[in-house]
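Practice problem 4.
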């Protein structure tokens, strides 16, 4: 028997019309990464894991394209919105992006260029979002204003962006 792209026995999906199910999961918390990896595999996604902005950046540059990226806001060497900004401005990549965090003062709109899922979500909500994102057709790059997004997050976490020099 052949194995598909995520190691399941059966017919290979390499040449089939099955949509790309590769998902990059970026979270500094190892327990979250490992837990999500197991769940995503059970849902027939092909997860790749990164703990930092740098690891995620290297994976985007060296691996096959991802159908979607799920990224925590807090990363040890940056944050999820900076990663999204890098994807759009430096790489010119339009990939469905799901930001996960403890909360935002307002719900992001489609004009923000990403989707949002508050932590402590129901696991089925993650599945529904990923199914939707992996089936989404690529769209033209939406304008992304990192400063506005940073200020929205700053009000939640009580810091100002950009940081003031001391």
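Answer key:
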């Amino acid at each position: 028997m052949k194995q598909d792209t995520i190691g399941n026995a059966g017919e290979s999906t390499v040449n089939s019309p099955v949509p790309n199910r590769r998902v990059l999961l970026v979270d500094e918390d190892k327990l979250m990464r490992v837990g999500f990896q197991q769940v995503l595999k059970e849902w027939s996604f092909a997860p790749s894991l990164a703990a930092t902005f740098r690891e995620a950046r290297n994976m985007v540059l060296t691996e096959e394209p991802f159908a979607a990226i799920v990224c925590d806001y807090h990363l040890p060497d940056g944050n999820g919105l900076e990663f999204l900004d890098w994807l759009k401005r430096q790489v010119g990549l339009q990939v469905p992006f799901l930001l996960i965090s403890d909360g935002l003062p307002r719900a992001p709109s489609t004009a923000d260029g990403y989707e949002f899922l508050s932590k402590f979500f129901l696991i089925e909500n993650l599945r529904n979002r990923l199914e939707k994102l992996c089936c989404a057709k690529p769209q033209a790059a939406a304008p992304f204003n990192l400063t506005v997004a940073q200020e929205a997050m700053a009000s939640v976490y009580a810091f100002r962006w950009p940081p003031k020099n001391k």
